[in-house]
Design goal:
By secondary structure, the protein is of the alpha+beta class. It is built from four helices and nine strands. A seven-stranded mixed beta sheet has the order 1-2-7-6-3-5-4. Strands 8-9 form a two-stranded antiparallel sheet. The longest helix is centred in the C-terminal third of the chain and has 27 residues.
Length: about 190
């Protein structure tokens, strides 16, 4: 998979936009994920400061982040966040669709990372699914499920467009429109 960064876009754009987050409500149910994050780009240096700032109140100061480099074209060792350094590590064994956040005082959180190019409807479904308390679904499972849902929606739209394009004609099992006379007669012979 090849990813390109748009170097013509201002890097400060991500800093100006609020972090798109969906966090699991506080509960005693422990799940695989603590929520979801939908970054605006694949530039960790631009995306991590607003994320860390958004999480400062509910989770405390984030000190370390780990990612899988498969989804990030450049993984810096540190990122400047409010006058301090946020350490960034990478592990190829980590789920590519997950971000792990660490804090010295509070603990660890795992977030589903929704690809920046994801359609808003799909991102909303993923954010809601990742924030379910006690969910047993991993980041990879959620992304696989969403891919299947997306295919189903695209297929349904395609079938509806074909139906409308044919004037609502019935299709034969071979994909050809059937005329009314070709339809089987009901038991009483009426058409």
């Amino acid at each position: 998979m090849t990813t390109t960064l748009d170097r013509t876009a201002p890097r400060d754009l991500a800093a100006e936009l609020p972090a798109r987050l969906s966090l699991t409500p506080k509960t005693t149910l422990a799940g695989q994920l603590d929520g979801a994050w939908w970054p605006y780009s694949r530039d960790l240096e631009a995306e991590l400061p607003p994320l860390a700032a958004a999480l400062a109140e509910p989770w405390g100061r984030i000190t370390r982040v780990t990612v899988n480099p498969t989804r990030w074209p450049l993984v810096p060792h540190t990122v400047a966040v409010e006058g301090r350094k946020l350490h960034v590590g990478w592990f190829t064994e980590q789920d590519p669709d997950k971000l792990i956040l660490l804090s010295y005082t509070v603990g660890r959180w795992d977030l589903l990372v929704i690809p920046p190019e994801t359609a808003p409807a799909a991102a909303a479904r993923l954010m809601a699914a990742a924030a379910i308390p006690g969910s047993v679904f991993t980041a990879g499972v959620l992304m696989t499920n969403e891919a299947a849902i997306g295919r189903g929606i695209r297929d349904a739209v395609r079938r509806e467009a074909a139906w409308e394009g044919e004037g609502g004609a019935c299709m034969s099992p071979f994909g050809n429109p059937m005329r009314r006379s070709a339809l089987p007669l009901p038991g009483n012979g009426w058409r």
